[in-house]
Amino acid sequence: MAVVESREWYLASYAPEGVPTSDHLKLRTVTLSLDSIPERHVVLETLFISVEPYLRSRVTGREDGLYTPQFNLNEVLSTFGVGRVIRSKDSDYVEGDIVVSPLTPFAEYGVVPSQLLTRKIDPNDGIPLPEYISLLGVPGFAAWVGIEVIADPKPGSNVFISAAAGAVGMYAGQLAKLRGCRVIGSTGSDEKVRLLKEEFGYDDAFNYHTETDFDAALSNYFPNGIDVYLDNVGGKMLEAVLNHVNKNAKIPLCGMISGYNKVWTEREGVRNLLNLIGKEVNMQGFMVGSYLHRFGDFAKDMESHLKQGKIGSKLKIFHGIETFLESLGSLFTSSNVGKVIVQVK
């Protein structure tokens, strides 16, 4: 019987507060049989796996905020990944196929239902494999939904993106620029300010660690007010934005990473929500799963932008399955730039 040894990350204990550590997420080695998989399943050799901020919300032991289902104790974590089929019990997939799955185990090898394989990759299409879980994955889709579907800005609109050098922010700003908007971003270092302006085409950006008076910063960068704010951080930045919104502004709420490691009673509140009424602002939270009917439109748009060189990516790749815990922790520091991915093979 053919078997492989596979290292996998599993949930040992819930982490209600703070960044998860090796007390919460642990690595173990298991033996996986290649010949006894169920019908309509495949065995994947994991190549690349996406490290997403929302994973933090799935190991708290409680359902609030994003209301994402919790991983069970002892369960292997899973997320979007790219893998190679090494065994198949489905005639639609053969050994050697490169596929994308939203439930790729955080493991070197894993058994996945073939119905959960969302895409078979053509190796001749010229798109680097990590882009399928970055620009063409959750971050790109979140940016596209936030800007193209919910905000739908007109040319000349004043657009503000927080966490602008992160996985979603880098694409959101570029999409807004393609629509002829004036785009400003906030980020956590002077180097990332440079990156936003020189590589991603932002009109300007500021370092929130040095420009700590957010209200003053927004007065400076938005003398004519804000028409669209794609929120990735929440907290004090959202409160400051609400003092500078124009009438009928749109605020797609993509994430609030400033509060992911805190219980709700310790998160910073927003005191000026009354401005939403007076300015008739549309502030809308969204989950990309509710827009899967638009995924085809998104993929067509973004593949076109990518192949024409209109949108670029910045990837932070960690090497080896053992680096997952470090890669997850990096999401909650100012050192992170772009999309975080673990290259397993």
TrEMBL record:
Domain Enoyl reductase (ER): 21-342
SUPFAM superfamilies in the cross-refs: GroES-like, NAD(P)-binding Rossmann-fold domains
Keyword Protein biosynthesis: no
InterPro entries, alphabetized: ADH-like_C, ADH_N_2, ER, GroES-like_sf, MDR_fam, NAD(P)-bd_dom_sf
Keyword Oxidoreductase: yes
Pfam families attached to this UniProt entry: ADH_N_2, ADH_zinc_N
Keywords on record: Oxidoreductase
Any one Gene Ontology molecular-function term assigned to this protein's record: 2-alkenal reductase [NAD(P)H] activity
Protein name: PREDICTED: 2-alkenal reductase
Organism: Prunus dulcis (Almond)
